[in-house]
Amino acid sequence: MIEVKNLFKKYGDGSAEAAVLKNISFKINKGEFVSVVGPSGSGKSTLMNILGALDAPSGGQYFLDNQDISQLPEEDLAEIRKHKIGFVFQSFNLLPRTTVFRNVMLPLIYSDARVEERDEKTKQALAAVGLEEDRWFHLSNELSGGQMQRVAIARALVNNPAIILADEPTGNLDTKTGELAIGTLQKLHKQGHTIVLITHDLGIASRAERIISIKDGEIESDRKKSV
Fold first, then answer.
1. Which of 172, 214, 203, 222 has its CA nearest to residue 32?
2. For the chain, which ranges sit under pLDDT 70?
3. How many domains does the chain contain in total?
4. Which of 60, 74, 117, 218 could form a disulfide with 7 if both were Cys (CB 3.0 to 4.6 A apart)?
5. Per the domain annotation, does 24 fall within a domain?
6. How far is Cα of residue 127 from the mean position of the Cα atoms in its chain?
7. Which CATH number belongs to the domain containing residue 41 in this structure?
8. Residue 21 lies inside a defined structural domain of this protein
């Protein structure tokens, strides 16, 4: 599913050069729920951008579904983001004056799916995250933070991507609401979805089945939770 080999990322040149990622290697199998945890400045955000095909490494390889996408041009990366990666962001990134249903459907509007297929997939995604049906046609800015994050998760899910990439998904939520968001991701994992969770919070990271810890641009540990 995912394999990175000797991944390296630097910024600047000469005396101003700074290595943000150094020789990162790991595999993530289909259906795994993996958290990448580290403090600010550890390199986890840079790694997230590479895994999300938002940035390219300076060296090394990144395989997604057995395709090396490390040095693809931007137009190819855009297609990969559209079809293979579902993003969940800390700030939700919903359109505020647009209904929940329309927000979730948006990724499908840019696909070749028929109108009937778009409707059905949107309903399935909203049902999968447990959002009450009476909320589907509310505007997104009429929802609570927890409901908005579940809508964002449904939008990430609607295209049936290869991976769901969640970047600090509880960062703007209180503890109780954050639990609901993480519980939704755990539920999707049990249904067979591959999830990569980026966080600075060890408590949130521990909800995944495997934890990759990053410090100073290097993997400090990579461990599966004991059952």
1. 222
2. 226-227
3. 1
4. 60
5. no
6. 19
7. 3.40.50.300
8. no
Name the phi and psi angles at 87, rounded to 5: -100, 135
187 lies in which domain range? Answer: 30-55+77-224
Is residue 23 within 8 Å of 6, Cβ to Cβ?
yes
pLDDT in the model for residue 171: 83
Residue 76 carries which side chain, given as an amino acid letter?
D
Q: Is residue 109 part of a domain?
A: yes
What pairing do the DSSP bridges indicate for beta strands 163-167 and 195-199?
A: parallel
Q: Residue written as tokens 């998760």?
A: 153
What are the CA-CA distances from residue 206 to residues 9, 16, 77, 198 (Å)? 27, 36, 31, 12
Helix axes 145-157, 175-190, angle to 10 degrees: 20
- Over residues 71-123, the pLDDT tens digits come to 899 999 998 998 899 999 888 889 999 999 999 999 888 777 788 999 999 99
- Crossing angle, helix 100-109 and helix 145-157, to 10 degrees? 20
Q: Is residue 18 part of a domain?
A: no
